[in-house]
Amino acid sequence: MTVRQLMDLIGARSLNDSAPLDAEITCGYTCDLLSWVLAHGKQGMAWCTVQTHVNVIAVAVLMEMACVILVEGVEAEPASLKKAQDEDMPVLATAKTAYEVSVLMGQAGVLPPAE
Amino acid sequence: MSLLTNTYDVHKGEFETAGDASASIKRKLKQLGVDSAVLRRVAVASYEAELNLIIHSLGGQLTMEMNPEHIVLISKDVGPGIADIDKAMQEGFSTASEEARVLGFGAGMGLPNMRRNADGFAIESQPGIGTTIQMEFRLK
Questions:
Q1: Within a domain: residue A112?
Q2: Is A64–B40 a contact, with Cβ atoms under 8 angstroms apart?
Q3: Has residue A113 been placed in a domain?
Q4: Most B CBs within 10 Å: which of A38, A47, A51, as the mutation test of the B interface?
Q5: Out of B40, B43, B107, whose CB is closest to A33?
Q6: Which CATH number do you get for residue A9?
Q7: What is d(CA B128, CA B5) in angstroms, rounded to the nearest whole number?
Q8: Using CB atoms, which residue from A35, A39, A58 is nearest to B18?
Q9: Is residue A114 in some structural domain?
Q10: pTM of the predicted model as reported, rounded to 2 decimal places
Q11: Closest CA to B29 of B55, B47, B3
Q12: Interface confidence (ipTM) of the complex
């Protein structure tokens, strides 16, 4: 599944128009502890979080994730959006909960990260 | 002999720029054609080291050296030092500030995650003096 297909699936909008939306998603993850994500993040991951600060983008970029999904209508901080644009990291926004997004991704065949 | 050495100053409390040094290291190594799996491990370990300098130290430096066999990351700070290294290496043990925890850091994963990602890991610390961490990543 690509990031663009994921947007349709979960009813999300892209907050970063310049980012490529055709990256393939390799796995899904939901976590708000960045320390934890650093230990378990993977390349191509679609990551659900309510954290909105700029370090979220730094983590996603370093781990070469496919996209960040901001859930439950939280708004990204301007510094985060700027970094996402600078780094070409797709950031999606949805009103759905992380649980709802995870269920939809799971039903569509997106698996948790393999250890 | 190092083919390449880069040193970055990392300042206490500067969360806004956390990851800049690691991103620069990653870019340089990518340009040199380092294998992408090694590159990701170096980037994660480097980011963890950078965060530790920001969260726990009074300031320090992150240095990346590359030779034909290895990439070496060295994190060296000017204090305050770690009283009990065995405890600090335990997953889940943390002395991070409230500020760090609010951002989602300080879960006590940093040092174990550095050790997990590196092929070689050594830490030395003296309370009142500082901490030095050296990590090696094999290229061959």
A1: no
A2: yes
A3: no
A4: A38
A5: B107
A6: 3.40.1390.20
A7: 28
A8: A58
A9: no
A10: 0.93
A11: B3
A12: 0.89
